[in-house]
Write a structure and sequence with these properties.
This protein is α+β, with helices and mostly antiparallel strands. It has a domain of about 130 residues. The protein is about 30% helix and about 30% strand. The chain has five helices and nine strands. The strands form two sheets. Strands 2, 3, 4, 5, 6, 7 and 8 form a seven-stranded mixed sheet that branches. A two-stranded antiparallel ribbon has the order 1-9. A hairpin with a 3-residue loop joins strand 3 and strand 4.
């Protein structure tokens, strides 16, 4: 939680905050994210405005995950920028008198509020980090991945290959072999062979 009491609801009042916080649980996606408890460095600018406190900031955190091509572990640094308005509770009451209808209800659901002049940054931090993550993280841009036949890492053995027959052609190769056998059986017989049958 962050305290905004120093701003005193004076529009234009500013406060800068730098803080290191432990990462919450499940801060990421399946293949990459910030480990729970890892240090997240926050640089924040708190600005008092008429409706509440505008929070602008950057989060820096270590990422851990795995390459989606070769499944090797990888580590990165993440910089995620964000900006969010935390409204005064009474500002919401004023806006409800001004706005009516479905749009007002939708806005109310999306609005974050100050509670006793404090705000919780976790939902904003979670959104900013997850939206900044690569959906398909790779250890390097030209990672060749794994062999589809045996799972070997192709980066370690660039000449790796298998002399496997394409199953779509395997049936034709079988036909080609039986045609050759058929040709031998249907070959014309020598005259001497015909006379032996008679």
């Amino acid at each position: 939680m962050f305290d905004t009491r120093e701003l005193g609801r004076r529009p234009g009042a500013l406060k800068r905050v730098s803080r290191s916080v432990p990462a919450p649980q499940d801060l990421g996606i399946e293949v990459i994210g910030v480990a729970e408890g890892a240090s997240v460095e926050l640089d924040l600018r708190l600005e008092s405005v008429m409706e509440g406190v505008l929070v602008t900031g950057t989060a820096r955190a270590p990422l851990t995950g795995e390459c989606v091509r070769c499944l090797e572990p990888l580590e990165r640094e993440l910089d995620a920028d964000f900006q969010e308005l935390f409204s005064y509770p009474d500002a919401d009451a004023r806006s409800r008198h001004a706005d009516t209808g479905d749009d007002a209800e939708d806005d109310e659901e999306d609005t974050l509020f100050l509670e006793d002049d404090m705000f919780d940054l976790e939902p904003v931090l979670r959104d900013a980090v997850v939206l900044s993550l690569p959906l398909q993280p790779v250890c390097r841009e030209d990672c060749p991945g794994l062999c589809s036949e045996c799972g070997a890492r192709l980066a370690e053995d660039p000449d790796h290959h298998h002399d496997a027959v394409d199953i779509r052609w395997a049936a034709l190769q079988g036909l080609a072999g039986s045609d050759q056998d058929g040709e031998k059986e249907n070959a014309p017989r020598v005259n001497g062979d015909d006379s032996q049958e008679k």
